[in-house]
Amino acid sequence: MNDLALGSIVLAVAAVPAALLVLLLADVVALDGAGQRQRWIRRSAAVLAVLALPSIGTAVWGWAGAAHLEPLCQAYAAPEFHVRRPINAATLRVKTVGLAADGLAPAWLASLRDPTLGLAALHRAGEPLAESAMLDLDVQRVVHHQNLWFTVSMDRFRLLDRDTGLTLAAGDELWIDAGDTRYHCGIGSGAVPTRQTEYPGGDGVARFLRRALAGPTTASGSSAASGSSANAGPDTTR
User: Is 78-231 a domain of CATH 3.40.50?
Assistant: First the structure.
């Protein structure tokens, strides 16, 4: 759907409640003469349109954003795991690109320091011991696409084996900005578009990493085996 078509739909939908309200009032208010009645309707419609269109238009814009994001959620929200066996006492280096100003840690990083996660050590890129880590958590913020109405952004998480360079797990967090409304989905917010999310805080990234370190589960063992071809090289499909 192009920008002009979407704008036309938003305006048309936003105008419907105002038009219905004017017609309802016209039936309730007693006016003498058809001409006076028509002038009253026109003036009332103009006033209601001015008052209602901004708020209604913004709401419809947000709903359109959620509908726009939904197919992307279906494509990206579910993480992928290619780990063949559990990884115990791993050391992890976290590399981020474009997530925060220099020197500021992303909010989700604190959840990775939970001792129940089973990491032996956690380092940020650039720290003295980071180069000795077994695994990389590579996180990049990108703009998936944007137009006059929407901007869709992503934080892309990739867990890498530093010895082989293979992708062990891949997950994404997506969000769409539609006017002043933002909808999320992904590893931190769930599989469907929502305005209620703890991301970039919360434990969504920690749950993603915990699942990756656990290795294949009984339910996913067959899928992990069938995904062994993905271990032939870095993940380039997502």
Answer: yes
Residue 175: strand, helix, or coil? strand
Q: How confident is the model at residue 121 (pLDDT cuts 50, 70, 90)?
A: very high
Cα distances from 129 to residues 93, 94, 114, 126, 133, in angstroms, run 9, 12, 19, 8, 7
Rg over alpha carbons for the chain, rounded to the nearest Å, is 25
Q: Bridge-partner residues for 167, per DSSP?
A: 160
Chain segment 149-165, per-residue pLDDT in tens: 899 999 999 999 999 99
Burial (CB count <10 Å: 0-12, 13-18, 19+), residue 165 = exposed
- Sorted by where each begins, the domain ranges of the chain are 3-75, 78-231
CA distance 174 to 72: 8
d(CA 71, CA 50): 34
